[in-house]
Design goal:
The structure holds three protein chains of three kinds.
Chain A (H helix, E strand, L loop, with lengths): L8 H27 L1 E4 L1 H6 L8 E7 L5 E2 L5 E7 L4 E7 L11 E9 L2 E8 L7 E2 L7 H11 L1
Parallel strand pairs in A: 1-2, 5-7
Antiparallel strand pairs in A: 2-4, 2-6, 3-4, 4-5, 6-7
Chain B lengths: L1 H26 L8 H27 L6 H6 L6 H7 L4 H22 L5 H25 L23 H30 L4 H32 L10 H26 L3 H24 L12 H25 L14 H31 L4 E2 L2 H21 L12 H28 L5 H16 L14 H26 L1 E7 L4 E4 L2 E12 L3 E12 L5 E3 L2 E6 L2 E6 L1 E5 L2 E10 L5 E9 L3 H46 L2
Antiparallel strand pairs in B: 2-11, 3-4, 4-5, 5-6, 5-7, 7-8, 9-10, 10-11
Chain C lengths: L2 H10 L2 H18 L5 H4 L10 E2 L9 E2 L9 E6 L4 H5 L1 H9 L4 E6 L3 H11 L3 E7 L3 H5 L4 E2 L1 E5 L5 E6 L7 H12 L1
Parallel strand pairs in C: 3-4, 4-5
Antiparallel strand pairs in C: 1-2, 3-7, 7-8
Classes of the chains: A alpha+beta, B alpha+beta, C alpha/beta.
Chain lengths: 150, 659, 183
C-alpha cells in the first residue's frame, strides 16, 4: 500500500487497463458462447434441432389458416414455415399489430418437445410501406375522421 | 424563397468552415501568426449562419410548405403543431442539419468565451471542430439537401410514422443528439491538445463543462428513451439491450468515464494520455451509435428508417475522424509528459478503478452489440440479449458501485484507512456496508426465489444511498460548493435507479387474461375490472379504448384507459398502454385483440417501485446540472476577477508611467 | 525513465487503432453483405400465375396474364388508392411511362370511384388496370403489401421485385432491370 514507484506508474496504469480490457474480452467471449440465441429457419430447426430449453429465435412465414386460439383466449397456436419445413409454435400473450397469417414473423423462445414455445413475437414494418392487411380504411375515410374530430 | 435562402446560408456556413480549418492550420505555423486573429470570429459567424439555416427549415415545417420535398415527405398540414415542429428533425436530412447546427453553435460559443486555454491549443481545437463539421456539411449539401424543392408542389404531405407521433419521441432524438455533438467538442479539444502536445489542467478545465453538458443530455435522453420504450412498446420492459438502446448507452459510459478522468486531470494533473484517449473514444461511440442506428446493419425492435447508403457515409466519416485521431494519439501520446503520481489508496486510484470498470462495461456492451454481426460473417445468425448483458455487465458494475461508496471520501494523492483519519472513513462506510449485508440476508431469507442479481442490486442500493451523502459530513452545508452537491446527487441517483431496477425484476407480477366486460382479476395488490370497450378518436387516429377500474387493496378504484390506436396518415397501428402510478409502484395495462368469443386480451403488470428507475435518471442529470452550474459560476467569477486585476494593473501602469 | 519502460507503452498505444480497424473491417463486411431477401426472391424466375382481372376503372381495360407474354418486358405495379406511399411514387411511375416503359397496374381492394379519383390526382401511367378485390393475384405473385413493382420479361416470367415505393434514385435500377429482362 505504498506509493507506486515513480518510474513505473504509467506502465502500471497501462497494464491495469490492458488486463481489464483482455479480461472483459475473455469474459464476453465465454458468456456469448453460452448466452447468444441462435437464429433458425424452420428447415434448420427440423434438420438440426437445438437442445431443448436453449433460447433460440425462429424466423419464417406464418402459414395461412394455421392460427388457432386456445380456450383461455390469450394463447395461440400457429405454424411457421419456410416452404421446406413447418414448425408448430405456441405463444401466450398479446400479438404484435402486424402479426397476420401469410406474413413474416420472428419468434423468440425455445423448443419444448415438438413445439416451439415463444416468449415474444416480432413483426417488422416500415414507415414507407403499407403491409398487406393494413387496412380497410381509405384515404378519404381517414380525412373524414380527421375533419369530424377537429 | 425561404428554402433558397436557407440553402444559400448553409453553403456560406460550409465555406466559413473551410476558412476556419485552413486559417487554423496556417495560424499554427510560425509564419502564419498574423491570421490567428481570424479563427475566432469565423467560428462565431459560422455558428450564426447555420442557426439561421436551421431556423429557415423550422419555418418551412411550421408553415407546411409542400413545395419543399422534405416537408412533403415528412409532414402533413393537419398534423398538430408540436409534431410539425418535431418533423423538422424527425427525418434524416433535418436531423443532420440539427447535428451541424449544434456543432457550429457550440464551436462559435467556445470561440466566444474560452479564454483559459493557450491560444494555439484553442486554434487547433477550432480547426479540429471545423474539420469534423465539414464532413457533415459535405453529407448535407452533396447527398441530402434538406431544402430541395419539388418540381410541382405536393397536394398534401405524406405524414410521419405513427410510431414517431409521440411527444416523448419528438424530443428524445434531439436530446441524444445534443449529447453526441457535445462530445464532438470534447473530441476537438482532445485533438487540439494532442496537436500542440499541451495536455494539462487548463485543457481539462476547458473541456469539462462541455463533457458535463453533453453527459447531462445523454443521461436525460437515455432516461426518456427508456421510459418511452416502456410505455409505447407495451411489453412492460424498460430496457431491452437492443442495438438502438446500446448505441445511446455506449457514449454515456464513455462520457461518464471521461467526466471522472477529467476531474483527476483538472485537480491533479494526472491521467493525461488516458483522458485524451477517452475524449476520442467518447465521440467515436457517438458516431458508432449514429452509424448503427442509421445503417440498419443490426436488427432492432425499434422501428427506425434505415438506409445502408447513408450508413456508409457516416462510416466513412467515422473512419476519417476516429482513424485519424487514433493514429495521432499513437504518434503523440508517448510525447505527452507523464502525469503526477498517486498511491493505491487515494481519490485518483478510486477514479482510475471507476474508469477501468466503466470501460469494461463499455467493452462488454460493444462486443455484445457487434457479436451478431461477427457470427454472421462466419455464417451463423444469433441474437444477444439480457441473459448475456445483465450478468456480464454486473461483473464490472458491482465492484464499481462498491468503490463508489468509498472513493469520494478519499483524499487526493495519498490516503490511509488506518489511524484516526482512517476511522473517519471506515466507520460510516462500514455502517453502510453492514446495511447492505443486512438487506442481502433479509432478501435471501424472506424471498429465496429472487435471483442473485436483483438481490445484490437491492443490497447495494441500500448501502450506496446513505454512503453517497457521506462526502457532506463535517462540511458547512451552505458553503459546500455546488459541484460537490452535484456529485452527491448524481451518486444518490445511481442508488435510486439501481433500487428501481432491482425491485422491478425482483417483485413484478404479471397477469395475462382474456376478459369480458365485467370480469375481475387480481394483479399484485390491485383488483382490476374490465368495465367496457368502446371507440374513441383523436386528431389523426381512431382507437379502441378499454375502460378498466383498478382498486388498490380495496380502496376507491382508479380508471385506466389502455388503447389500441389506428393512425390514418400514414396508416399504422400502435398500442397505447395505460399506467397508474403510486408512490410504491406502477400498474401497467395493455389492451390486445378481441377473440372470436367476445373476450378481450388484457395484460397487466404490477411493478413495485419501477418509477425509481427514471427518478434516479433524473436525479443523475440534476446532479450533473448542479456540477455544471457550480463550475460555470466559478469560471465566471474567475473571469470577472482576472478582468478586474488586469484593469487595476493597467490603471497602476498608467499612473506609474505618469511623471 | 528507462528505455525498456518507454518502449512498451509505445506499442500499446497503437492498440486502440488496431481494435478500431477490426471494428471497421467487420462493419464494412456487414454493409456489403447481400441483404436478406429470402421472402422477396421466392418468386423471381417463376412464371406469372394465370389470372384475368376485370377493369378497375372505366377508361382502362382489365388485366390478364396473356398481356405479359407479348415479347416485350413490362412493369406490373401493385397499388391502392388508400395507400399513401403509392401516391408518393406516382411521379416516378410517370417518369418511367414517359420513357416508353409499359406499366400495368393491379388495384388492391379498391372502389372504382376511389381509383378514378386517385388517378385523376396523381396521374395515370397505366396501360391496363386490373381490379383485385380479394388480393388473390397479389398473394399469388408473392407480394406482401402495397406498393410493390414487378419487372416481367416478354415471356411472362417475374424477373425483379421492388418492395415499397419507387424513389427517384430507384428509377435507374428499374430501367436496368427492364433492359436486362429484354435481352
Amino acid at each position: 500500500m505504498s506509493a507506486i514507484k515513480a518510474k513505473h506508474q504509467r506502465l502500471v496504469l497501462l497494464v491495469i487497463a490492458l488486463v481489464a480490457l483482455v479480461g472483459a474480452g475473455l469474459l464476453a467471449a465465454w458468456a456469448l458462447r453460452n448466452q447468444a440465441a441462435y437464429f433458425y429457419v424452420p428447415s434448420d430447426l427440423v434438420a438440426r434441432p437445438p437442445e431443448p430449453g436453449r433460447a433460440v429465435r425462429l424466423g419464417g412465414m406464418v402459414e395461412k389458416g394455421s392460427i388457432r386460439r386456445a380456450a383461455d383466449g390469450v394463447t395461440i397456436d400457429f405454424v411457421v414455415g419456410d416452404g421446406k419445413a413447418r414448425v408448430p409454435v405456441r405463444f401466450t400473450g398479446i400479438t404484435p399489430d402486424l402479426f397476420v397469417e401469410g406474413s413474416g414473423v420472428v419468434a423468440e423462445g425455445r423448443m419444448e418437445g415438438p413445439t416451439f414455445v415463444a416468449d415474444n413475437l416480432l413483426a417488422k414494418h416500415d414507415e414507407k410501406y403499407v403491409p398487406r392487411e393494413m387496412k380497410d380504411m381509405t384515404a378519404s375515410q381517414a380525412k373524414q375522421v380527421v375533419a369530424e374530430t377537429k | 424563397m425561404i428554402a433558397e435562402l436557407g440553402l444559400a446560408v448553409l453553403w456560406m456556413a460550409a465555406a466559413l468552415a473551410v476558412l476556419q480549418l485552413v486559417s487554423g492550420i496556417l495560424a499554427l505555423r510560425p509564419e502564419g501568426r498574423q491570421i490567428a486573429g481570424l479563427v475566432r470570429p469565423v467560428a462565431v459567424m459560422q455558428g450564426v449562419l447555420v442557426a439561421a439555416a436551421f431556423a429557415a427549415l423550422i419555418t418551412l415545417f411550421l408553415t407546411t410548405d409542400l413545395s419543399v420535398k422534405l416537408v412533403a415527405e415528412n409532414s402533413h398540414s393537419m398534423k398538430p403543431f408540436i409534431f410539425k415542429l418535431a418533423g423538422t428533425w424527425g427525418n434524416h436530412e433535418g436531423s443532420m442539419l440539427l447535428w451541424v447546427t449544434i456543432m457550429a453553435v457550440a464551436g462559435g460559443f467556445v470561440a466566444l468565451v474560452e479564454k483559459r486555454l493557450p491560444e494555439n491549443t484553442l486554434i487547433a481545437t477550432l480547426a479540429g471542430q471545423a474539420f469534423v463539421s465539414l464532413g457533415f456539411y459535405a453529407f448535407l449539401l452533396l447527398s441530402s439537401n434538406p431544402f430541395e424543392r419539388l418540381a410541382e408542389p405536393a397536394p398534401e404531405g405524406a405524414g410521419l410514422n405513427p410510431l414517431l407521433q409521440d411527444v416523448g419521441l419528438a424530443f428524445h432524438p434531439p436530446t441524444l443528439y445534443v449529447g453526441y455533438v457535445g462530445l464532438s467538442i470534447a473530441f476537438s479539444f482532445a485533438i487540439g491538445a494532442l496537436v500542440t502536445r499541451d495536455v494539462g489542467p487548463a485543457f481539462a478545465r476547458a473541456m469539462r463543462p462541455w463533457v458535463l453538458g453533453a453527459w447531462i443530455f445523454l443521461t436525460l435522453g437515455i432516461t426518456a428513451g427508456s421510459y418511452w420504450a416502456y410505455y409505447t412498446l407495451g411489453w412492460g420492459g424498460w430496457w431491452f439491450w437492443d442495438p438502438v438502446e446500446n448505441a445511446s448507452l455506449m457514449p454515456w459510459l464513455a462520457a461518464t468515464a471521461l467526466l471522472h478522468s477529467c476531474s483527476v486531470l483538472a485537480s491533479r494533473n494526472a491521467l493525461k494520455a488516458w483522458t485524451v484517449m477517452l475524449g476520442v473514444i467518447a465521440f467515436s461511440m457517438s458516431m458508432v451509435g449514429t452509424f448503427l442506428v442509421r445503417s440498419g446493419i443490426l436488427t432492432s425492435v425499434h422501428a427506425f428508417a434505415v438506409d445502408p447508403e447513408r450508413g456508409s457515409f457516416i462510416l466513412a466519416l467515422l473512419a476519417i475522424y476516429i482513424g485519424g485521431a487514433l493514429t495521432l494519439f499513437a504518434l503523440r501520446a508517448s510525447t505527452v509528459t507523464e502525469g503526477a503520481r498517486f498511491s493505491f489508496v487515494s481519490r485518483e486510484a478510486a477514479l482510475v478503478f471507476n474508469n477501468v470498470m466503466l470501460c469494461g462495461i463499455l467493452g462488454i456492451v460493444l462486443v455484445g452489440t457487434l457479436y451478431p454481426l461477427l457470427t454472421e460473417a462466419m455464417g451463423v445468425k444469433v441474437s444477444v440479449g439480457p441473459p448475456y448483458f445483465n450478468p456480464v455487465s454486473a461483473v464490472f458494475a458491482i465492484p464499481m458501485m462498491l468503490v463508489m461508496g468509498v472513493g469520494p471520501l478519499l483524499r487526493w494523492r495519498q490516503d490511509s484507512f488506518e489511524g484516526k483519519r482512517g476511522g473517519r472513513i471506515t466507520l460510516p462506510v462500514g455502517l453502510c456496508a453492514l446495511l447492505s449485508a443486512a438487506v442481502l440476508f433479509g432478501v435471501e431469507l424472506m424471498a429465496p426465489r429472487i435471483g442473485l442479481l436483483p438481490a445484490l442490486g437491492l443490497a447495494i442500493a441500500a448501502g450506496l444511498a446513505p454512503a453517497s451523502f457521506l462526502p457532506l459530513r463535517g462540511r458547512n452545508l451552505r458553503r459546500t460548493p455546488l459541484s460537490i452537491w452535484g456529485m452527491v446527487l448524481g451518486h444518490f441517483g445511481i442508488a435510486v435507479a439501481l433500487f428501481g431496477m432491482a425491485s422491478e425484476s425482483a417483485f413484478s407480477t404479471e397477469r395475462l387474461a382474456a376478459m369480458r366486460p365485467g370480469d375481475v382479476r387480481q394483479v399484485g395488490p390491485y383488483t382490476v375490472k374490465l368495465e367496457g370497450i368502446g371507440p374513441v378518436a383523436g386528431p389523426n387516429w381512431t382507437a379502441l379504448e378499454a375502460t378498466v377500474s383498478a382498486s388498490y387493496e380495496g380502496a376507491a378504484p382508479a380508471i385506466l384507459h389502455p388503447q389500441a390506436r389506428t393512425f390514418s396518415n400514414p396508416p399504422g397501428n400502435r398500442t397505447e398502454s395505460a399506467l397508474k402510478t403510486r408512490w410504491n409502484g406502477q400498474l401497467y395495462a395493455v389492451l390486445g385483440e378481441e377473440g372470436e368469443d367476445g373476450r378481450w386480451q388484457m395484460r397487466f403488470w404490477w411493478k413495485p417501485f419501477v418509477p425509481m428507475i427514471w427518478y434516479g435518471g433524473a436525479l443523475i442529470a440534476l446532479g450533473g446540472l448542479l456540477a455544471l452550474l457550480g463550475r460555470v459560476a466559478a469560471d465566471v467569477r474567475r473571469l470577472v476577477a482576472t478582468g478586474k486585476i488586469a484593469y487595476r494593473r493597467s490603471r497602476k501602469a498608467a499612473l506609474g508611467a505618469r511623471p | 525513465m528507462s528505455g525498456e519502460v518507454r518502449k512498451k507503452p509505445g506499442l500499446a498505444l497503437w492498440l486502440p487503432l488496431i481494435l478500431f480497424a477490426g471494428f471497421f473491417a467487420l462493419v464494412i463486411w456487414g454493409l456489403v453483405r447481400p441483404a436478406d431477401r429470402e421472402v422477396a426472391s421466392a418468386f423471381i424466375g417463376k412464371p406469372l400465375p394465370a389470372f384475368d382481372l376485370p377493369p378497375a376503372t372505366d377508361d382502362r381495360p382489365g388485366l390478364a396474364t396473356a398481356v405479359f407474354k407479348a415479347g416485350k418486358p413490362r412493369l406490373l405495379n401493385v397499388f391502392a388508392s388508400w395507400c399513401v406511399p403509392c401516391a408518393v411514387e406516382s411521379p416516378q411511375l410517370a417518369q418511367l411511362a414517359g420513357q416508353g416503359v409499359e406499366i400495368d397496374g393491379v388495384a388492391i381492394r379498391d372502389r372504382k370511384e376511389d381509383v378514378a379519383r386517385f388517378l385523376a390526382q396523381n396521374g395515370n401511367p397505366f396501360a391496363r388496370i386490373g381490379k383485385d378485390d380479394l388480393s388473390q393475384v397479389q398473394l399469388a405473385i408473392g407480394s406482401s403489401g402495397v406498393p410493390e413493382t414487378f419487372v416481367i420479361d416478354g415471356k411472362g416470367v417475374i424477373r425483379y421485385q421492388h418492395i415499397g415505393d419507387i424513389r427517384p434514385e430507384d428509377v435507374p435500377l428499374i430501367l436496368a432491370k427492364l433492359e436486362e429482362a429484354g435481352k
